[in-house]
Amino acid sequence: MLSIKNLHAKVEGRDILKGLDLEVQAGEVHAIMGPNGSGKSTLVHILAGRDGYEVTAGSVSYLGKDLLSMVPEERAHAGVFLAFQYPVEIPGVNNVYLLKAAYNAIRKHRGEEQLDAMDFLAMVKAKMQFMEIDPSFLNRAVNEGFSGGEKKRNEILQMLVLEPKLALLDETDSGLDIDALKVVAKGINRLRSPERAMVMVTHYQRLLDYIEPDLVHVLAGGRILKSGDKNLALELERRGYDWVLAEAAA
Amino acid sequence: MNMTSAALRPYVEGFKTLETAPAGNAPAWLAGLRRDAFARFADRGFPGERHEEWKYTSTRPLEKRAFSLATPAHDSVSARDIAPILVHEMPVHTLVFVNGNPVAALSTASSAIRGLRIFSLNQALEQNAVVLQPYLIPESVWADDAFTALNTAFLKDGVVVDSDAKVQLDRPLQLIFVSTHQTSSLACHPRILVRLANDSQATLIETYLGLEGAANFTNSYTQIVLGENARLEHLRVQRESLGDFHVSRVHVSQQGGSSYLSHTLNLGGLWVRTDLQARLEAPLAEAVFNGLYAVNGRQHVDNHTRVDHLAPATRSNELYRGIIGGHARAVFNGKVVVAKHAVKTDAAQTSNNLLLSRTAEIDTKPELEIYADDVKCSHGATIGQLDEQALFYLRSRGIDLQTARALLVEAFSLKLLERIPASRLRAYAARQIKTALPRQSAVAEWA
């Protein structure tokens, strides 16, 4: 589904990614771990199409298409979704409006009919209940005045509504208490399916107690240094990253 | 005379025509009033850029054109033409003027509302129904600038609203001033007088609509006099065409406990200047100024506001928001004056501006003159661009760039709408903004 080859990227003239390779198949959940500043967030932002990153070498193919040549909305239409580490507050645009506009834009791209307003609302409300979000949030401005946990739950709600093919989750567990983490994990797990892939960037093993990854990668110095199964995450939790760096240097 | 004769000539000729026209039933004093006003205008000339109040707005574009006086023969407008500006959200009284001339066929205002009278200015003059003379002579408290003098000199028609005490106007009064396409451009000078006696209330919707191809000059002057505890909500929607010149001036005098709530939407026009001034003359008078301006292309819009706190415990609150794209230029100047004895004044002013292109320009300036102690005055001005993070967030959800930009521009205008308390009036204002905004935000010029 997603094939990243030898990706090099700069931010403000500084090399961040230095030859990153990653293969993700449909149905897989990948966890990308690594020390601060290793390029984890850069990677998912580049995949989602954010400005400000200069790709200097390498390629990203998504469902056979050149992902890097697509603008962000085209990527979304093609099924890419980024759950933000810091969801953006947008005063003056309400949640339900955004959900509906996004949902209809994606359906339109797929050649599907737009959902009737009542059916749409019923669908969204059911998913809000699942994510334990109060219905009053529908008519609030996007993320404005939401607590950290509410913002993260709102990201997952959007994901449940938009049903992406490739979900990129950027530190979705950061700043969550254990109860909120369980709800967020429940939402993510609900979307696991053989047709869908997920790439989770995380700092801690904690999230992986609730969402079991198929593959765990260590990203450091702009490259994937080591890959393994879920046990690698446990080992990283125990031993930190230094041994991986040392191993790679050897 | 200190103006160039070329710029002056059309006005001199126009004034001659006006003077030689049959006076009809107009009162005898009117001719003298006009003559004095024209002499003041000719003496003063259009304000130059060295005039502090006109620093960022040159009247040269206006001076370069010759406008002739509109006559009723120029009117041919159907209900369909004015449909975009009509209020559907609630029942209203409507008075329609085309190039300054009243059109009875399109108007629905009733003059027989208990305790409140609505006239065309001509009617009021002819019937001597309201004592108008004091209002037509510029009071010394208001600076008599060239445009007010010009308005008085060419005074022909307009609207007079006059109430008794304790009257509530049953539905809003909408005034529609239409500017139409002409082979030679026209000038018109509508005059509006609204006098609400003690404890009376009304809503006035003052609207300007320029039809396709119009390139006229509208110079309106609105005087508002509010008695004790009177309340006026005043929505002004300016949607002149992209060839129109528009000058409007609103002067409000307020007695104790009165409340004036203004929403000014400057959404059209080629060259626009609006002045809004309130004098809070007695304790507990309150003025709220809300404004939105949206310009693009080569448009120029200048908003000047001024509040004079002349008595203790008066309050003013002002929010103006601007959306400027293309090569457009906007000016906001908000002056607040607190007189020496106006203690416990509470004045707040905010100006927020959104620049949509590198070539757009805004000059925003708060001016506070505070002569009293023990007052609460605040002001703030911001100039920004569309939030790149918010744009990316929306696009990452599948919303295309154009729509995302439009959405954020609309969201920016929402703060203004939130300040219109009456829901149906708000809905009307929202519709007007929504129709005008796409043109503003469609241009993506951050190249």
Overall description:
The complex is a heterodimer of chains A (250) and B (447). With 250 residues, chain A is α/β, with parallel strands linked by helices. Chain A has a single domain (2-249), classed as P-loop containing nucleotide triphosphate hydrolases (Rossmann fold, 3-Layer(aba) Sandwich), CATH 3.40.50.300. Chain A contains eight helices and twelve strands. In chain A, a hairpin with a 2-residue loop joins β4 and β5. In chain A, α4 (117-130) packs across α5 (148-162) and α5 runs parallel beside α6 (178-190). Chain B is α/β, with parallel strands linked by helices. Chain B is 23% helix and 36% strand. In chain B, strands 1, 4, 5, 7, 8, 10, 12, 14, 16, 18 and 20 form an eleven-stranded mixed sheet that branches. Chain B has a ten-stranded mixed sheet with strand order 3-2-6-9-11-13-15-17-19-21, covered by helices on one side. In chain B, β2 (93-98) and β3 (101-102) form a beta hairpin. Chain B is globular.
Briefly say what this structure is.
Chain A is built from eight helices and twelve strands. Chain A is α/β, with parallel strands linked by helices.
Number of helices of chain B: 10
Q: Would you tell me the structural class of the helices and strands of chain B?
A: alpha/beta
CATH class division of chain A: Alpha Beta
- Assembly annotation: heterodimer
CATH superfamily of chain A: P-loop containing nucleotide triphosphate hydrolases
Give descriptors for this structure.
heterodimer; A: 250 residues; alpha/beta; Rossmann fold; six-stranded mixed sheet; four-stranded antiparallel sheet; 8 helices; 36% helix; 28% strand; B: 447 residues; eleven-stranded mixed sheet; 10 helices; globular; disordered C terminus
Compile the SSE list and pairings.
The complex is a heterodimer of chains A (250) and B (447).
Chain A: E1 2-11, E2 14-24, E3 29-33, H1 40-48, E4 53-62, E5 65-66, H2 72-77, E6 80-83, E7 90-94, H3 95-109, H4 117-130, E8 141-142, H5 148-162, E9 166-170, H6 178-190, E10 197-201, E11 215-220, E12 223-228, H7 230-239, H8 242-249
Parallel strand pairs in A: 3-10, 3-11, 6-9, 9-10
Antiparallel strand pairs in A: 1-2, 1-4, 4-5, 7-8, 11-12
Helix pairs in contact in A: 4-5, 5-6
Chain B: H1 5-20, H2 29-44, H3 60-63, E1 68-69, H4 79-82, E2 93-98, E3 101-102, E4 116-120, H5 121-127, H6 133-136, H7 146-153, E5 158-163, E6 173-179, E7 186-188, E8 191-196, E9 201-210, E10 217-226, E11 231-239, E12 245-254, E13 259-266, E14 271-280, E15 286-295, E16 300-309, E17 315-324, E18 329-338, E19 346-355, E20 361-370, E21 376-384, H8 388-396, H9 401-417, H10 423-441
Parallel strand pairs in B: 1-7, 2-6, 5-8, 6-9, 7-10, 8-10, 9-11, 10-12, 11-13, 12-14, 13-15, 14-16, 15-17, 16-18, 17-19, 18-20, 19-21
Antiparallel strand pairs in B: 2-3, 4-5
Helix pairs in contact in B: 2-7, 8-9, 9-10
